[in-house]
Design a protein that fits this description.
The structure holds two protein chains of two kinds. By secondary structure, chain A is an alpha/beta fold. In chain A, 63% of the residues lie in helices and 10% in strands. In chain A, the strands form two sheets. Chain A has a six-stranded mixed β-sheet with strand order 6-7-8-3-9-10. Chain A has a four-stranded antiparallel β-sheet with strand order 2-1-4-5, with no helix packed on it. The two termini of chain A are 71 Å apart. The two termini of chain B are 42 Å apart. Chain B is an alpha/beta fold. Chain B has three domains: 23-346, ABC transporter transmembrane region fold; 364-443 and 525-534 and 543-604, P-loop containing nucleotide triphosphate hydrolases (Rossmann fold), CATH 3.40.50.300; 450-522, Rossmann fold. In chain B, the strands form three sheets. In chain B, strands 6-9-10-3-11-12 form a six-stranded mixed β-sheet, sandwiched between helices. Chain B has a four-stranded antiparallel β-sheet with strand order 2-1-4-5, with helices on one face. Chain B is elongated and about 125 Å long. Classes of the chains: A alpha/beta, B alpha/beta. Bound molecules: adenosine-5'-triphosphate (2 copies) and magnesium ion.
Chain lengths: 613, 614
């Protein structure tokens, strides 16, 4: 684990030469900027003494010369230092993305996407401003301050002391205000997070919002969050708004003091008017650094806070990583799960599960909702790692294969389909290094029975897919996901409830083709439908994280347990027996609705009974 | 069928590419409309701003008098030193007074601007959100969430910046420039002319660089939008990315976008790195010209040191706003582009609107009629063709058919998520388009095919925002769908926090929650289940069906399911094929017809037979 400080210097140190030259130019800029006031003083003094016009012209031209130098150096410094920051931003963004790519699934399940995005945008911007404008202005400011101070001392120690009594006041005031600004700014950011989360959730779930007529309450809720946000924003201005008036007041006071005290000195003849004006010119020169100091320290504070937040991302360790001594023998696809227990946090979801599928064999997993089926199959491509027991492929623990090799060998169709908003073709070819050839895509589309739908799309496989696949039907999404997994030509195919939105006819077609494709490959199918699982070499019935039954379709029917019961339920014939489970549910339901029936059982409306029944 | 073609994501960025002029009178007028409720405060703010500009110009002029009336005469012994000291005092007090006034004004002005701007933009943001809520689903199908998010957050923020800072600053700058120009002319018209000479040069320079920056500014915006859109989608789909070992390629894609952005940014930096020094140098040149001219006239005794001193200070203040112009130009341009995008959204008419004089349904019976309905998501690509059927009040009907046949589309039409192109849909004999959407949807309890879970708690997902649904009803609804068992096992029961999209629940559990939600809302008439239990085990489904049987009495219900056992109790079955109704009737009738339904039935039934006899 590195510290934010180390990270800061890491990105800064990538272009040392650029940094050094940039700062050097900033110093030269500052140095050149303190010269012109000298010429101004000299012009005025020589005018007062009654000089020639030529002298004035010469002095003025000399001053312009220095200004030209200042401008050139400023341009270079700006160019080098701001570019440095942009490059650092670019590298950080890439590094963050690459880091996120290594993070395990559980990390994303517990992190709000909106929050990750906020870090990759707002926080990154704040850090970039710290590297860029803040660093550059910081360099200008410090150098200008030093050179201006030295110049001021050379004119009048007394006036310098006067000015330097007032100036730090500005910094102190700034320090106090800045601290409060910081606190309020953080509060504002938090509110902003609430606001965008609210909007994001609403837009993502707009179908539900509309179906349940929740538009008005949603707007009310959004308005409430927004009201809080506005309150915090005005609160921030109330603090931040103090800065500029205070600064300009203090600076004005400094100029006045110099004029007042310096004026008296001039009258007493201890100072020339030229020197007085020269001194005021230095004050003006200093005024920007004095204001900038506050601004810069703000940027540094905000940037540092953001850097710490980014560091949190970097510090998050991927829980699932490549082995140190990888095994790279080709995967054939024999899968064994040996005494596996698994828990999400404290909740144990799998208890001592074991099974074995030979290469080319097939396994089906059934079981009640929440019994751990998805969890179990997630262990094979290492979306999660087991806490106890082992998952083996070809007799070797999955943890010993390089992740890329392991996952390349596994074609996985997750229970919830995620498609990318790219053309259909690219979604299907997602797992491949090269673009799919027409015949490959045709084959994958045939196995998944996607072709028959795609024929009807005007743009066929070039059809653009909406976000997460919103413009496809449920079954089309699932079949796209199947095509995507099949196109990889994997040794192991895992279908997690991947046919739930597909009709039985299409399902049968897909299964028939898969059997052909999977003859030499291993398949694991999770499903709730008997028709999907009945032909598997072995069926595993999971109940509450334990293997309750196992065997072939026939074995299990004979056994007369959970599977047989599930089978009976799916028969179309109404069966008459009233079982315990049912009675128990009815009882619970009655208890839950006893006091106050929540769903009115509607009386049949007189004379309006079903006409067609 | 229902899709437009399109290259790789090109279509997605059009709107973000709006560049915007720096000033567009029409948009500006519309924006200013949001300030109308606060016009009293706006007037006060403007008056204060005017006072502030004047107060800002005063110190250099007082300084001129300090030099000319007190210091210079005393130094050159025109007046005694004591007299010089005495004259300093009152001027210094005046100076302090002016400083105090200007500081006070400045604070008041920033508070006012913030108060007015934030409140006005609050109205705009809530207005925009409200407007979006009223837009139809076809709009949301086309617009990625990320884009809408940008409108409601960044774009409105850009507008807030403009109202609270940009406009005020520009107005203040203009006042300052005019006031200083006048003061300079009064102080000394010849020197003023020397100063003015620099103005055309500066303006020409600004114009030139503006064009350069306009381009890079545009490029930066577009590329940033692309980087963020890519990031968002890839973070959301990270598991898929990893499972399909796309890390390297997706990193390369991201790097390409990121590099583009870097290049655009560097273009901007180059332009600014030329512009700022150029302006500064012009300024220094003007200053030098000023001193040369002033030297000439002072030598000729036609000018005082104080005037030169005042000039020198004022010229600094005169040029600052001009130099900042490009920066403000950027703020304005960003804001104008933002406002154009925001207003374009505001002007997107909802395609589905309530009629001006909606019909009221006193007693809804729940009779649904599809009368020759044809429907397409995209013009011309019909998804449903000539669909005609009638579902009587309190009848239960199942819709079956191959995937992609149009089942979900039928349901979306009943909730009036979309409007039909041909034919009509009637509820109790009244065209849906003559009813309020709210009234229609209030009567329809729907369980959508893709269960959506909000971040919140289990309970908040069941009751949504409806406070009228008490804890008791939440529990009852959960029990109804047999979800109470797993909920009670969760660490905090009904108050357990669920993450975004319910990522820590099993899919079946999510479906049960979505189901419980529909039950809790207690729809009066219609119950619509779109594969509501497709990922739920048979046992649970069976329990739900028992409970449903009671609920369905007196209610019309429409059920879509692929597992035929799910629909065994319905009165009638509609078979859909490629957007057309091909069969309709009772289970018995359809089997007798030996058509599509028969084949589906056979497939499942034979499967069982085979299993049993094998
Ligand atoms: N929002 C949309 N925009 C464009 N086309 C759509 C949209 N939703 C669905 N379609 C298309 O309309 C057709 C019918 O889709 P629909 O969702 O009604 O099918 P379905 O019968 O419910 O299928 P499934 O059983 O797979 O859920 C499909 O070809 C689908 O691609
Ligand atoms: N990421 C997670 N964090 C915490 N708990 C989880 C997580 N994922 C699943 N669970 C819980 O673990 C249990 C098993 O979930 P799993 O998804 O494996 O069930 P399943 O058998 O696939 O169910 P379904 O048939 O509904 O898909 C459930 O109770 C679920 O709530
Ligand atoms: Mg599951």
């Amino acid at each position: 684990m590195t510290s934010a400080r180390a990270t800061f210097f890491h990105y800064l140190g990538q272009r040392k030469l650029q940094l050094v030259i940039g700062i050097g130019c900033a110093a030269a800029t500052a140095l050149a900027s303190v010269v012109p006031p000298r010429f101004i003083g000299a012009i005025i003094d020589s005018l007062q003494k009654g000089t020639t016009f030529e002298t004035v012209v010469l002095l003025a031209l000399a001053s312009v010369g220095f200004s030209a130098g200042e401008a050139i150096f400023r341009g270079i410094a700006r160019y080098l230092l701001l570019n440095l920051a942009r490059q650092a931003e670019y590298e950080m963004r890439n590094d963050l993305f690459a880091h996120l790519q290594k993070m395990h699934l559980a990390y994303f399940q517990h992190q709000r996407i909106g929050d990750l995005m906020a870090r990759m945008t707002n926080d990154l911007t704040a850090v970039r401003q710290m590297y860029g404008p803040a660093l550059m202005q910081g360099a200008f400011t410090v150098m200008t301050f030093v050179f201006a101070l030295l110049s001021m001392l050379s004119v009048s120690v007394k006036l310098t002391v006067v000015a330097m009594i007032l100036m730090p006041l500005a910094s102190v005031a700034f320090w106090w205000v800045g601290r409060n600004v910081h606190v309020r700014f953080e509060r504002l950011q938090a509110k902003f997070g609430d606001l965008s989360t609210k909007a994001q959730e609403n837009f993502s779930g707009i179908r539900v919002v509309k179906a349940f007529g929740q538009e008005a309450p949603e707007v009310r809720d959004f308005a409430r969050v927004n009201r809080d946000y506005v309150g915090k924003a005005i609160g921030l201005t109330a603090m931040q708004g103090l800065i500029w008036p205070t600064m300009s007041f203090i600076l004005g006071l400094a100029v006045l003091s110099v004029l007042y005290i310096g004026g008296q000195d001039a009258i007493r003849g201890e100072l020339t008017i030229g020197q007085l004006i020269q001194f005021v010119a230095y004050l003006y020169l200093l005024s920007w650094p004095m204001i900038a100091i506050g601004w810069i320290s703000n940027m540094f504070q905000a940037g540092w806070a953001s850097l710490i937040r980014l560091q949190e991302l970097f510090d998050a360790k991927p829980a699932i990583e490549d082995p140190i001594d990888p095994v790279t023998i080709p995967i054939k696809g024999a899968i064994e799960v040996r005494g596996v227990s698994f828990a999400y946090g404290q909740t144990i979801v799998l208890h001592d599960v074991s099974f074995r599928v030979p290469a080319g064999g097939s396994l089906a997993i059934v079981g009640p909702t929440g019994s751990g089926k998805s969890t179990l199959v997630n262990l094979i491509p290492r979306l999660f790692d087991v806490q106890q027991g082992e998952v083996l492929i070809d007799g070797i623990n999955v943890r010993r294969y390089p992740l890329q090799q392991l996952r390349r060998a596994v074609g996985y169709v997750p229970q919830e389909t995620f498609l990318f908003s790219v053309p259909l073709r690219e979604n299907v070819a997602f797992g491949l290094e090269l673009a799919l050839t027409e015949s490959q895509i045709d084959w994958a589309g045939d196995v998944s029975q996607l072709n028959k739908d795609v024929e009807d799309f005007p743009a066929r496989y070039d059809t653009m897919i909406g976000e997460r696949g919103v413009t496809l039907s449920g079954g089309q999404k699932q079949r796209t996901a199947i095509a995507r997994a099949v196109a990889k030509d994997p040794q192991v195919l895992i279908l997690d409830d991947a046919l739930s939105a597909v009709d039985t006819y299409t399902e049968a077609e897909i299964l028939r083709r898969l059997r052909g494709v999977m003859r030499e490959r291993t398949s694991i199918v999770v499903a709730h439908r008997i028709s999907t699982v009945k032909d598997a070499d072995e069926i595993l019935v999971l109940d509450d994280g334990r293997v309750a039954e196992r065997g072939t379709h026939r074995d299990l029917l004979e056994h007369g347990g959970l599977y047989a019961q599930m089978y009976r339920r799916q028969l179309l014939e109404e069966e008459l027996e009233v079982d315990e489970e049912r009675e128990e549910h009815a009882k619970r339901l009655k208890a839950a609705t006893d006091d106050e029936p929540p769903f009115g059982v509607r009386p049949r409306l007189g004379g309006m009974g079903p006409e067609g029944a | 069928m229902a899709h437009g073609g399109g290259g790789a994501g090109v279509g997605f960025f059009q709107e973000d590419e709006i560049l915007g002029k720096a000033y567009d009178a029409r948009l500006m007028r519309r924006l200013l409309g949001y300030l109308r409720p606060y016009r009293g405060l706006v007037v006060v703010a403007l008056v204060i701003l005017l006072g502030l500009s004047l107060a800002d110009v005063a110190p250099p002029i007082i300084a001129k008098f300090i030099v000319d009336n007190a210091i210079a005469p005393a130094v050159s012994h025109e007046i005694p030193a004591d007299e010089g000291f005495a004259r300093l005092g009152p001027l210094a007090l005046l100076y302090i007074a002016v400083l105090l006034v200007s500081s006070g004004f400045r604070y008041a002005q920033s508070m006012l601007a913030s108060y007015v701007g934030q409140n006005a933009m609050y109205d705009l943001r809530v207005g925009l959100f409200g407007h979006l809520e009223g837009l139809s689903l076809s709009f949301f199908d086309r617009n990625p969430v990320g884009r809408l998010m940008t409108r409601i957050t960044n774009d409105i923020d850009a507008l807030t910046d403009m109202v609270t800072q940009g406009v005020v600053a520009i107005f203040g700058d203009v006042v300052v420039i005019v006031v200083i120009a006048v003061v300079l002319a009064i102080l000394d018209w010849r020197l003023a002319l020397v100063t003015y000479a620099a103005v055309p040069i500066l303006i020409a320079m600004t114009m030139y660089f503006r064009r350069m920056m306009r381009e890079s500014f545009r490029a930066i915006r577009i590329r940033l939008a692309r980087v963020n859109a890519y990031l968002n989608e890839n973070i959301s789909g990270m598991a898929i990315l990893q499972l399909f070992t796309r890390e390297r390629r997706s990193f390369e894609e991201f790097d390409a976008l990121n590099t583009d952005l870097l290049n655009a940014n560097q273009g901007g930096i180059r332009a600014m790195a030329l512009f700022i020094p150029a302006v500064q140098f012009t300024r220094a040149g003007t200053s030098a010209a000023l001193f040369i001219a002033a030297g000439y006239w002072i030598l000729g005794g036609q000018l005082t040191f104080g005037t030169l001193f005042a000039f020198w200070q004022l010229v600094e203040r005169f040029f600052s706003p001009i130099q900042d112009l490009s920066e403000k130009y950027n703020i304005m341009q960003a804001a104008m582009a933002s406002s154009e995008r925001v207003f374009r959204l505001m002007d997107t008419e909802p395609t589905i609107v309530d009629p001006p004089h909606p019909r009221e349904l006193a007693h809804v019976r729940g009779e649904i009629t599809f009368d020759n309905v044809s429907f397409a998501y995209n013009e011309g690509d019909y998804v449903l063709r000539d669909v005609t059927f009638k579902i009587s009040a309190a009848e239960s009907v199942a819709i079956v058919g191959a995937t992609g046949a149009g089942k979900t589309s039928i349901i979306s039409l009943i909730s009036r998520f979309y409007d039909v192109q041909k034919g009509r849909i009637l509820l109790d004999g009244v065209d849906l388009r003559e009813l309020r959407q709210r009234d229609v949807r209030r009567h329809v309890g729907v369980v959508l095919q893709d269960p959506f879970i909000f971040a919140g708690t289990v309970a908040s997902n069941i009751r949504l925002n409806n406070e009228a649904i008490g804890d008791q009803q939440v529990r009852a609804a959960a029990t109804f769908v047999n979800a109470d068992k797993f909920i009670e096992k969760l660490p905090h029961g009904y108050e357990t926090v669920v993450t975004e999209r319910g990522s820590t629940l099993s899919v079946g559990q999510k479906q049960l929650l979505a189901f419980a939600r529909a039950i809790a809302f207690n729809p009066e008439i219609l119950l619509v289940l779109d594969e509501a239990t497709s990922s739920v085990d048979t046992e649970t489904e069976h329990l739900i069906q028992d409970a449903l049987a009671k609920l369905m009495v007196g209610r019309t219900s429409i059920i879509i399911a692929h597992r035929l056992s799910t629909i065994q109790n319905v009165d009638r079955i509609i078979v859909l094929h490629k957007g057309r109704v091909v069969e309709m009737g009772t289970h018995r009738d359809l089997l007798a017809q030996r058509g599509v339904y028969h084949r589906l039935y056979e497939l499942q039934y034979r499967a069982h037979e085979a299993g049993a006899s094998a």
